[in-house]
Amino acid sequence: MDKPQEECGVLGLWSQAPLDVAGLLHLGLLALQHRGQEAAGIAVTDGKEFLVEKDLGLVHQVFTEERLGRLRLPGARMGLAHTRYSTTGSNLRFNAQPLTARTAHGVLAIAHNGNFVNAKPLRDRLLQEGATFQSTSDTEVMLLLLARLPHLSLPEAALEAMRRLEGGYSILLMDRKTLLALRDPHGVRPLAIGKAPWGYAFASEPPALALLGAEYLRDVRPGEVVWVEEGELQSLQALPPNPTPCAFEWIYFARPDSLLDGTEAYAARVRMGEELFREAPAEADMVVPVPDSGIGAAIGYARASGLPLEYGLYKNPYAGRTFIQPTQELRDLKTRLKLSPTSAVRGKRVVLIDDSIVRGTTSRHIVALLKEAGAKEVHFRVSSPPIRFPCYYGIDTAARKELIAAQKSLEEIRAYIGADSLAFLSEEGVKRAIGGPVCLACFNGRYPAGVPEEGEKLALELL
Amino acid sequence: MDKPQEECGVLGLWSQAPLDVAGLLHLGLLALQHRGQEAAGIAVTDGKEFLVEKDLGLVHQVFTEERLGRLRLPGARMGLAHTRYSTTGSNLRFNAQPLTARTAHGVLAIAHNGNFVNAKPLRDRLLQEGATFQSTSDTEVMLLLLARLPHLSLPEAALEAMRRLEGGYSILLMDRKTLLALRDPHGVRPLAIGKAPWGYAFASEPPALALLGAEYLRDVRPGEVVWVEEGELQSLQALPPNPTPCAFEWIYFARPDSLLDGTEAYAARVRMGEELFREAPAEADMVVPVPDSGIGAAIGYARASGLPLEYGLYKNPYAGRTFIQPTQELRDLKTRLKLSPTSAVRGKRVVLIDDSIVRGTTSRHIVALLKEAGAKEVHFRVSSPPIRFPCYYGIDTAARKELIAAQKSLEEIRAYIGADSLAFLSEEGVKRAIGGPVCLACFNGRYPAGVPEEGEKLALELL
Amino acid sequence: MDKPQEECGVLGLWSQAPLDVAGLLHLGLLALQHRGQEAAGIAVTDGKEFLVEKDLGLVHQVFTEERLGRLRLPGARMGLAHTRYSTTGSNLRFNAQPLTARTAHGVLAIAHNGNFVNAKPLRDRLLQEGATFQSTSDTEVMLLLLARLPHLSLPEAALEAMRRLEGGYSILLMDRKTLLALRDPHGVRPLAIGKAPWGYAFASEPPALALLGAEYLRDVRPGEVVWVEEGELQSLQALPPNPTPCAFEWIYFARPDSLLDGTEAYAARVRMGEELFREAPAEADMVVPVPDSGIGAAIGYARASGLPLEYGLYKNPYAGRTFIQPTQELRDLKTRLKLSPTSAVRGKRVVLIDDSIVRGTTSRHIVALLKEAGAKEVHFRVSSPPIRFPCYYGIDTAARKELIAAQKSLEEIRAYIGADSLAFLSEEGVKRAIGGPVCLACFNGRYPAGVPEEGEKLALELL
Amino acid sequence: MDKPQEECGVLGLWSQAPLDVAGLLHLGLLALQHRGQEAAGIAVTDGKEFLVEKDLGLVHQVFTEERLGRLRLPGARMGLAHTRYSTTGSNLRFNAQPLTARTAHGVLAIAHNGNFVNAKPLRDRLLQEGATFQSTSDTEVMLLLLARLPHLSLPEAALEAMRRLEGGYSILLMDRKTLLALRDPHGVRPLAIGKAPWGYAFASEPPALALLGAEYLRDVRPGEVVWVEEGELQSLQALPPNPTPCAFEWIYFARPDSLLDGTEAYAARVRMGEELFREAPAEADMVVPVPDSGIGAAIGYARASGLPLEYGLYKNPYAGRTFIQPTQELRDLKTRLKLSPTSAVRGKRVVLIDDSIVRGTTSRHIVALLKEAGAKEVHFRVSSPPIRFPCYYGIDTAARKELIAAQKSLEEIRAYIGADSLAFLSEEGVKRAIGGPVCLACFNGRYPAGVPEEGEKLALELL
């Protein structure tokens, strides 16, 4: 998919009494599936047994009835879960999360959304000290740091590890007794706390809490460590907060119904569309969203402009799940499988709304589809600025040389995608729509939470 | 799903030169997946070998890479495919289509959308004459009739069989040489003809033709038999046409981008929304569609009323693919998995738009969700009349006693679903929006193509 | 495997009270797995529902826990089962048995071991009369004949069908009420009757009866139809008996512990070894069986000769279940996977005993293995005559041109397999060891139950 | 199965030029399948990529075509493989071998047959120093020790680790460059070296070498570390040798055709049978082996006694692969599935030969089968002494309280199994048959290579 790829969703729960922990986490993971489609995992414990199941695949592929059955401990009261976008091939099954390790703290499991920018130098030092790693994931460095602090309690050890780690991260961590939630001092990735009749839950986005039967309480604060002790929510402000949450969560990643740091994604998207019309109006007959990512901004643009909204592109919900033999004959036809235009666009001047452009290939294809279906003009409007820089905090935006906005001018992009006009929303427009300080590093290269020394996110792969 | 269930989609192609027939049909089936999600099948031939693969499941479940590979005949030039909604359990694998039989005509394969209302008396007579059946599907009766006419050509035999069969049906049929397309005299189910550089194709809906690389040529006419002979499209008007195509194709079943008998589904849906506002306006702050089925009518209603359209319900695209353990605890939470409201509805008077109401359970659930999310009022508007009668022509509308509109008054329905007001579009409104004669039997009980003697669609099951 | 391939095993049971029919038949099928390894199936009924599960593969591959679960009817009292050696590829899944058909008798299921030599002319006539076939199996002709006799009871119709069919066959047949067992007038294939506390059972070989908890009662007589009526075993001598059971059942096919028409296979094999020594003694140091098929005869040969028996060839029980990539490198090594010699043969003169030679390739490989392991001489002794003719009664002996004994003289065979001497048991020796009239057609070309007109067993394939 | 369970087989190869490493190791594993049936794994490297595939199941279940395909590196020159008998449930997938770790030496993989008796104290100390473990296997302690020696070469580090580890073990170890083979100073478990045209191979038993195309060169010596450097086999006598190889390898575990420390298993088994007759003759009519484990000793007993050998028990090769529903009805019948008697035993006095008795349940069942089949007397002879003590060096003999010989007198055992007489071979008899010093700890409790402090093999499970 020609969209930035979120790297993960995390989810966890702590209950006072035995519960169908695996069943609830499985249900909740389905509400976080959009945050990562390449691997999924669940860990549960009843205080004695500690079970983990994880594999490459979508949640419904990994968690067959049989596999879920293996996780059902009658006395289970705690667990955590993860859904992952992994950047490489099938042989990286060992990077699926939760990661676990048997340490002096007992068994630990960790689920992580984000990236540590100083993972490589930390890992190199640990290796020289005799450490063993099971994965090439930066997440494992956190586990190793905890194992090296056997005389601290788990919350204290987590606080100490946060002092040594840099980057953007939201983390859930558990041993046989305690469930912890950690968020980096910039709060780059979201992490919400929920209160349920049976206890507490944590999730990347509040709608996943609802599926556990928990009510949204508040967000974990930037720099905070939260955990449950004797049924009470405990908190430690590990590091001073300096909030710059990722703007892309509101632009594209988060579900429309997610409330993040006080602002709902759908509302922000509608406002981005309104801002976009103010910055870049177009003479046209209708507004057409690219489904489903452009719907919120298209509603805003239509509302601000007074132009009619038309559902001019049909998205086949069954496309993309299937195997297509890569013959040239079929590949050419396959591009028509996912999206197809309705006749509403025939003879019309269309404002086409999408949330972002990465490589430009899909945008080019959609403009061509509309023209072929008889659209007289296509005015492409994008509800975020051009993506020109890599993200080091948990998003895969594609390599720099593949980012069309890092390689071409606005006019060159317009010509490439074949639109009659093209405009992006400004950084100011994004900030106004969201209404607070945000990380815009992928647009402007200003990284609030550090960058890797080597400027290379995946340097851990080659041990 | 609390929606009427279409029974089938059909697809076939004839090529002058060898082609990746299985690959193309597989691709095209994905464009017809919405017409049937319980079984899928493909038959191909190169004039000598005749291969069939079919099973219960979605297209992407049935057609794994391995299974598709088994169908790839190097010299294949012809094939047909089917996607099915079957009404009963897993042991009815033998009813998956295409059905085949080895007869005096050689091997025959058939794919069928619709129902024969006189299947049972015909089958009883055939059995007394020594016939053997492999399935409990009414479709097989057509195969048996053809086998009994060994001295006619296949088009002549098909014409003769059509004279004996009553009901609403669109059928594709092939032997090792010829591909035929048949449509009943009322044209109840759709069937389109496409022209490709390599030959001809037939499909329930035109967007499937596009995926085969074929252009929409025209519809098969009610009562017509069409086939390809020496590269030329041949036609026989088997029975006099008396067109009353099914209104539900435009209301809900067909893809929005499908052109059926001259009218596009999306355009008809927008007009239904406009008619609905004219018939049943509401004092409100916004129009919210039930995604995705209510989107077209909501756009029409919003446009006609001048009220803002809001995407107030988020539909999780990953819901419904997964196994959920049926504990009470999880079942209650699962209802939140599929749909969840955005904050746009808080404190607002909402016009909620859906295309139809069958049992009312889902409608009741959605109204409750909106109220819980803070909607002040919910005015439910339905872009079709109340469903009160069973369909005998290929749709499963649920048993009569489950149809809420067959059991309750308008006011009782409103009270059950918890809406502040409720209105359905009139039959006249539907006809105006579609613009021609249509079958409205499920609304008014007037059946243009006959009814079964016993008034019982599934009487074949119990042989 | 370079052995003649049995085509089938059949199994059925009738109980007065509900029973775990599917579970019992599954267990019993495992005792008949040696009779067919390419497909397996079970049909069960409770008098109302009629369920069938079948597929290509071994019994344990076809009958997963889930699939067996689908067959468990709480009130089931009757069922039949089949294990098959099919002669062609994966697309012939439709030939797996039990075959079923819905007829004027209701649903019928059939399981068949053997072949009808006049299937083709019968089928051609039925097709001209409007019949439809679902498979290319000769077995289906029997079902069609029964369907054409709607006014007879099932036993009467079976008798009538037997009058029209020629060949060697043992058949189990059932509708929702009655279970029938049929054996051709020559009794070519075995079929045994068992009596259990709950009712009656039928099986190709008695050890399968033991696994159902039934005691061996007697064999079905050649030309007899047996069925259960009101709890009583009923019998009809349909055709006059003329017994010539297949000698290969004793030579190789049947389990050693099977009692067939009064003679146990193991005892007959030991006697064949004793006869073989008398006909063809050898100057040697030890007798080595080819495991497992040569063990019985080797014991007889060693006993008669006074030479020590040595287990000089180890057979790996895990070979043959796995996928081996067909590179030349691995193929060469793979031949060592199945059999390997022990050091007992080093420096010795070995009498190597096998039950038969088909193509000679395996024999040649084994002789080479022994010589490589240091055997000074290898005297090959075969406990049956040379196979020179095809079987038309249910065994696949390989095509005539592949039969080494149909192509080469004794001395040429000896030279090809590299033995120092070679001898086969005589037809008289076989008859003495078994002790009654037997079919020896594959050795001498004298066919007691007719031959196909076209001399072509698989002529049905190409409809 | 009521037999002692071997814990593992190991296999590895080093080649000068690229080779189908995964294909060869897979083939070779099939020759070691008898050493462990619960998990299998293969690791391969081309000097850069390092791939591992492993899972619970038999070799043919784990290594599907697809999974084997994932291991095929074009430039692969080295790899190792493992087949495992794991002592606990399905959630212990993480204990499947090869185990791997990323260390300062780079990636390491290890495959292990045997046990370290001091694993627990070593692990506890490592944990206090901050180590992380991925499994509950004692094997991982070796990996951790190696990781702590980053400044030594891998052979030097292995030698140093061997100084700290006690117990009985044969180990293969590799990084991206070097393949090492280690054997404990008592040589408890076997380990053979092979020479192939392309390089060197190591395997638990020589027949696996033959499947790689390698010739048996010699055994790894007790206390030796062997590895390949610049194409030359290098060796280090790490610890002084004190050979006491496990007697059970010859009694039961090893394949009959395996040459272990100079003595072939089949020959030793025949001699055990001969010794057994000398120690415990019986008045009888025939000798019947329990297939397949009693065959060698039965041949020896028959030869020494002059009594005829009869293949009086048929072993169904298809039993045991299938799922049997655990209803009482079927469980009772299932015991007949695996073994059934031939009529040879009717009216006879039988000497029944097996290699060992663990719980006695199977022995009791077999005696009952023979009596039911008409055997007049059954004289049970066992070709090894009574098992009374647990093994700490890699064999699972069942818990002490389940060992019938640890709980009952000879006469009580005889009465329990229902034999007319019973005798076991003496320790002296075993030693004479094998011909050298052997470990007999499971018979006499004298442990040559130490015992765990806690006397508890699985103490690692509960971290």
Automatic annotation (TrEMBL), chains A, B, C, D:
GO terms for biological process: 'de novo' IMP biosynthetic process; purine nucleobase biosynthetic process. The active site is at C8. InterPro entries: GATase_2_dom, Ntn_hydrolases_N, PRTase-like, PRTase_dom, PurF, PurF_N. The keyword Phosphoprotein does not apply. It holds the Pfam family GATase_7. Residues 8-231 form the Glutamine amidotransferase type-2 domain. Its EC number is 2.4.2.14. It catalyses: 5-phospho-beta-D-ribosylamine + L-glutamate + diphosphate = 5-phospho-alpha-D-ribose 1-diphosphate + L-glutamine + H2O. [4Fe-4S] cluster binds at C246, C391, C439, C442. GO terms for molecular function: 4 iron, 4 sulfur cluster binding; amidophosphoribosyltransferase activity; magnesium ion binding. Keywords: 4Fe-4S, Glutamine amidotransferase, Glycosyltransferase, Iron, Iron-sulfur, Magnesium, Metal-binding, Purine biosynthesis, Transferase. In the C-terminal section; belongs to the purine/pyrimidine phosphoribosyltransferase family. Catalyzes the formation of phosphoribosylamine from phosphoribosylpyrophosphate (PRPP) and glutamine. This is Amidophosphoribosyltransferase. It comes from Thermus brockianus.
